[in-house]
TrEMBL record:
Gene3D superfamilies named in the record: 3.40.50.1910
Pfam families reported in the protein's UniProt record: Sec1
Any single GO BP term: vesicle-mediated transport
Family membership: Belongs to the STXBP/unc-18/SEC1 family.
Name of protein: Sec1 family-domain-containing protein
SUPFAM superfamilies tied to this protein: Sec1/munc18-like (SM) proteins
Region (Disordered) residue spans: 30-51
Length: 346
């Protein structure tokens, strides 16, 4: 902007009572006269040679400052004992594109943990990328000590060891089918502690999955998907699955074959707890039941969700293709666990 235009803009700003801020960018635009604020319309009338002009030019200042910075998100807590960087492309970046940026992000995240809890005294690892990460951590420690001698970190009293496992140690495991309840939830796209389920599977929009009044209803068996629930198309709902759900924390690591019996047992217990309301005679007993009602309803909702999910998983696991693939995997890798342990500790 030329000096003459800038001075003209300053004069116009003073006329319309717009405060001038130095080093603020000036914007020039064309607006309809009726869209201008009253002071600007009045100023334009005084300086316009034609009052019939439908458009007028206005130079005005932009007084809003926007600062764009970088936020290091680092590790995301998915569980009380599980942290993740959630870099989905890290395997491809490291092993195919030869881009080690993900290793740098891991090192930065671990350094942040060490700033909070102290230096980890013992670092163990297996694999080339694990060695690169360990070397990078040691270099960052030295750089921190050189840059700020007063900020030297003490030895951690909470973390005694860091074990780094390179994916190259065991390529096969992610390709095999998991047989735990949580592992089979991958059929529904579990990601970041959430799973996308049909609304009718959660039981919130389906009459077939309403709270049970007896122990032998839907929760008693995990075999066979409800035809009414499967036939009605429904929107997706995000359901959070972590240890805050007591039922999920109990069954998440169990083999799927035993999940049905556990859901049956929980359904019977909840039904018994609901029936206890008929035995409440005194005010104290009624108050005690009402105090438990919130937990019972939350547990009942959780049971309804996991029953529907188990039915959906069962519909997949009884299929011929699933069992054929599982048979091939088990016959191909019968000693996979032994091989992995041998690689790790020898």
């Amino acid at each position: 902007m030329t000096m003459a235009k800038r001075r003209a803009a300053e004069r116009l700003a003073r006329k319309v009572n717009v405060p001038h801020a130095p080093y603020v960018p000036w914007l020039q635009g064309t607006r309809r006269r009726k869209d201008l604020p009253p002071p600007a319309r009045q100023a334009r009338r005084r300086n316009s040679s034609s009052s019939d002009c439908p458009f007028c030019s206005l130079i005005y200042c932009q007084s809003t400052h926007i600062t764009i910075g970088q936020y290091a998100l680092n590790l995301i807590p998915l569980e009380d004992d599980l942290l993740s960087l959630e870099i989905d492309s890290s395997f491809k970046d490291i092993y195919f594109d030869r881009d080690s940026t993900a290793i740098y992000y891991v090192a930065k995240a671990l350094m942040e943990i060490q700033r909070m809890h102290g230096l980890i005294p013992r670092i163990l690892g297996k694999g080339d990328c694990a060695k690169s990460l360990a070397d990078l951590l040691l270099r960052m420690r030295r750089e921190l000590a050189v840059d700020d001698t007063a900020a030297s970190l003490p030895i951690s009293q909470k973390i005694d060891s860091l074990i780094i496992l390179d994916r190259s140690v065991d390529y096969a495991t992610p390709l095999l089918t998991q047989l735990t309840y949580e592992g089979l939830l991958d059929e529904f796209g579990k990601k970041k502690a959430f799973v996308d389920l049909d609304a009718n599977m959660t039981g919130l929009n389906s009459s077939t999955l309403q709270p049970n009044t007896g122990p032998a209803d839907g929760a008693a068996s995990a075999g066979g998907l409800s035809t009414a629930a499967a036939a009605v198309p429904a929107k997706k709902r995000k359901v959070q699955l972590n240890n805050s759900d007591r039922l999920f924390s109990e069954i998440r690591d169990l083999n799927f074959a035993v999940v049905g019996s556990i859901l049956n047992r929980v359904a019977r217990r909840i039904n018994t707890d609901y029936e206890a309301r008929h035995q409440a005679k005194t005010v104290g007993q009624i108050r005690e039941f009402v105090g438990k009602l919130g937990d019972l309803q939350a547990e009942h909702t959780s049971l309804r969700i996991h029953t529907a999910v188990a039915e959906g998983i069962m519909a997949t696991t009884v299929g011929e293709n699933f069992n054929r693939a599982l048979e091939i995997q088990q016959s191909t890798c019968p000693e996979k666990a032994v091989v992995v342990l041998t690689l790790l500790f020898h």
